[in-house]
Amino acid sequence: xxxxxxxxxxxxxxxxxxxxxxxxxxxxxxxxxxxxxxxxxxxxxxxxxxxxxxxxxxxxxxxxxxxxxxxxxxxxxxxxxxxxxxxxxxxxxxxxxxxxxxxxxxxxxxxxxxxxxxxxxxxxxxxxxxxxxxxxxxxxxxxxxxxxxxxxxxxxxxxxxxxxxxxxxxxxxxxxxxxxxxxxxxxxxxxxxxxxxxxxxxxxxxxxxxxxxxxxxxxxxxxxxxxxxxxxxxxxxxxxxxxxxxxxxxxxxxxxxxxxxxxxxxxxxxxxxxxxxxxxxxxxxxxxxxxxxxxxxxxxxxxxxxxxxxxxxx
Length: 314
What we know:
Strand order of the largest sheet: 1-2
Shape: elongated
Number of helices: 10
CATH superfamily of the domain at 7-155: Cyclin-like
Radius of gyration: 61 Å
Helix content: 55-70%
């Protein structure tokens, strides 16, 4: 609610309207129903200090049309000068309680609250639209304001309503309470069912996630095993190649040794002396040394051909 609309102002308006309705012979329940409409608009922030009286007066007019007995709308047919042939409905009330009932309440609105009838009748439909065209009020909502007004007037509800009507009123309140409790119970049961469904769905999702997680872990485990097997096979192949290369190197004698001593391999697996020394003529000491060296490197004497030049004694 706006800060300009204080609780004291609302209480003063309700008390003034109650006294005016009692003077006009209007039911207290009608004022209680008008209070329900007014509080709906106040909680919707549609009432402030400037329009509080106009709003409550329009709410009271609507409540009189809804709650008062033997109430009818008076229609006025248009005159000959008007072009429209349809009857115009005026916001006017006719009751069987007396002709001065509605006149007295309108006089209260115009004289005491300073409202014009034109603005009052124009605001009536605006209030009706602001209420979202919902004029129904529960018995407990009306009973709350009705009991407070009975205390203000210092009246007894049984004496005011009568024994039979008071019993009917109490039965209505009990029935409403039973319906309210049943509605709350249905809401609780519905909420419990929805929570149970949510728990079941969460359990299913958890099971599905666990199954997917196990499958993923198994796939990762298989992938790791395959990768390790491939690495082991790759490591074993180079070792075998290295072993074969070492064996072949061991079997083949190095050519560097032959190059150092001046020997070469021929095509028919014979080793020849490329550059013999002069001291190897006629089986000299150097020749014996070379034959010994050749035997030490694995060359047989019968496979070695010594190129001996004949001496020239001339």
